[in-house]
Model the fold of this input.
Amino acid sequence: MVPKRRLTKDVAYYQIKQKIIYGEFNPDEVVREEQLSEMLEISRTPLRQALQMLEMEEFLIRQPNGRLKVASITKEEVEEIFQIRSMLEGSIARNAAANASSDDIKVLTEILEKLRQAYHFGYTQEFVAYGNDFHDYLAEISGLKTSVKLLSMIKDHANRYCHFVSMYGKWSNQVDEHALILEGIKNKDGAFAELAMKKHILSTLKDVINRIEDKASSKIGNTVD
Amino acid sequence: MVPKRRLTKDVAYYQIKQKIIYGEFNPDEVVREEQLSEMLEISRTPLRQALQMLEMEEFLIRQPNGRLKVASITKEEVEEIFQIRSMLEGSIARNAAANASSDDIKVLTEILEKLRQAYHFGYTQEFVAYGNDFHDYLAEISGLKTSVKLLSMIKDHANRYCHFVSMYGKWSNQVDEHALILEGIKNKDGAFAELAMKKHILSTLKDVINRIEDKASSKIGNTVD
DNA sequence: AAAGAAAAAATTGTATACAATTATACAAAT
DNA sequence: ATTTGTATAATTGTATACAATTTTTTCTTT
Done:
């Protein structure tokens, strides 16, 4: 099975989303179709498909006059997203504990070790990547398709707010937190794994908030028109 | 402000979605664009926008060859959806308890009374409607935008599985369950309201499952290709 | 000069034509 | 008879032209 062809709408979707997440497009900025189609060098037809997707995910907001504007995001929304994440990923951890084979546990142990190393040597990039791997693997074996789908949608929104945070150091106790979750999974203790995961997510939220407080405004973008 | 114009893509989206939810389109059935554009008497352009939306919500699944097929849904997925609902609506109830004004409580009390009447007289249609009103009102005052958005997405999926259930009677203790939630809100007892809501959702799931057991297969549609 | 109306420009919404891809039918070869 | 290749048809993907709507500009009237 060769790699199935990349549809223009899909690459457009990805590119525009990245521009929104990483601030190349500012919140409340209105984007026009022609402008984007020129920028990405594609026609309006696949572009509009991409815009439709982003509208569904509420990265773009359709105004009553038909114009699209980039969504703003508040600190409160980020907190809500992490709250939801803690619930969803909690369930995932619980189910993962029930489903995990010995092979799965081996893989997870390896990821955790890599995470520990990355932290030890200060490889931030890798550290974040392995952290994601850990969560993604649990999602995979949990079998909770809907939860995973919803998670993927809201995670990107939170990333928008705190991507810059992930770059600079001191993820206080993330390694230990992951280890604790894995402990629960090893012991097939779903309730334990769920609780550990919830705590972990909420602790991550705290880290994010702290970084935010240090830095800029409590809000990206304006709600006022 | 006059009612903003209905876009063809939006009505197409709604119509196709209804056909999927209420079984006019069968699970795993493949739908073609031309067929739909003739059926709805619109051109392919707005139709494809609608299909894109339904694909994002996973009512339609894009196959590797580009064809779209109607999603199937398993009993397990329905159970997962109710599990997620219980968490999300639990949070909503908790926040609603914190935010509810005395006016809000008055409105909720009225809705509950109508619900009680509808149940008493066996008006199933109205009973379901008032139940939805109650939940929607809590969602409104909770201020949890993301949770509400996610809820609206998954609810429709569950409806697909159990719409036929809602028609025939005996919602055992729904009235009392709603009353209990309202009790928590009146007392500004968020934890109580949250728990009551969670129990309520899970009890509804039980009702649905029981009906399903009585009736047909445990699964709508085939996963086998 | 200000307010309103009319005209022009810009932008989104829809339809259709064409290109690329995928599925089907049928014939030839083994 | 089964398979393989090729031609044909069917279907999706993309581009573009046109229609409808909204915004901006201009002009007129007071």
Notes: Residues 5, 32-34, 44, 48, 65-67 of chain B lie near DNA strand D (CB under 10 Å from a C1'). The mean pLDDT of chain B is 90. Chain B is about 70% helix and 5% strand.
